[in-house]
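Hi V.,

You were right to ask for the full record rather than a summary. Here it is.
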Amino acid sequence: MSAPLRRTVLRSATKEVVIAADQPFCVIGERINPTGRPVFQRALRDGDLSIIEKDVAAQVAGGADVLDINMGVPLTDEADLLVRAIQLVQQVTDLPICIDSSVVEALEAGLATYQGRALVNSVTAEDERLAAILPLVKKYDAAIVALPNDHDEIPMEAEKRLQLTEKIVRVATEEYGIAIDDIVIDPLAMPIGADSTVGRVTLEVIRGIRERWGLNTTCGASNVSFGMPGRHAINGAWLPLAMSAGMTSAIMDARTPHVVDAVRAADLLLGNDEWGSKWIATHRSRQAALAAAAAGPA
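Predicted structure:
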């Protein structure tokens, strides 16, 4: 008998997003992240956050439901940058936020600043990380992304990842009083170019998580295609496969129509877009935009 399905509720000051198996797939925009963006890194070191406004606008236009914010730039005050970024994003959009940092002090500063109910990205199954981060999740009534790896390894076997998921659930719920609905598991999507079996293993983990605990799941969608040509095509194929196994959200590039369209088409085919209303509305909006562009200025 399968576990009941969970509902992870995120909020901004004015908007609520529910991550659940009976809801449309939650697109978590990954763009507000300086990794691999030297121009953005230099701007942040200079205290210039203006690029963030462009990133927000592009992701909102692309159909993001939640925005991930990462301010991990070496030789900067990450906590200060994260607070400023969260404040700026809250000024320009009502989408809920995923606060993304490995620095405990930065996470707490971000959670204290955020006006809403955030998703925290992330924690592992290591004892010291659970002890450092879960009290913050409880204190600020947030939800948490948790990865089933520990200090020893990233397990390549599905069952080992499920065993570590069981540990995370037990510790979070029994030791820290965190609601099981507020635990979102990242099943560890690995680069397919390094090992052609990792996709099947991750799908097995997603199915196991759904059946045993009914938990919501997420992943860094672009991890799967890392190092391969034609990455958008791979990502656009991976996400519907993961959705059919039970994945309910992903941290992904919301600016890529091909990949977002694959997700929204899978929503339609899996019955999470009643009467195809969202698919049809998106198509009509694009047709209208193309017609307006073709007509040119009045």
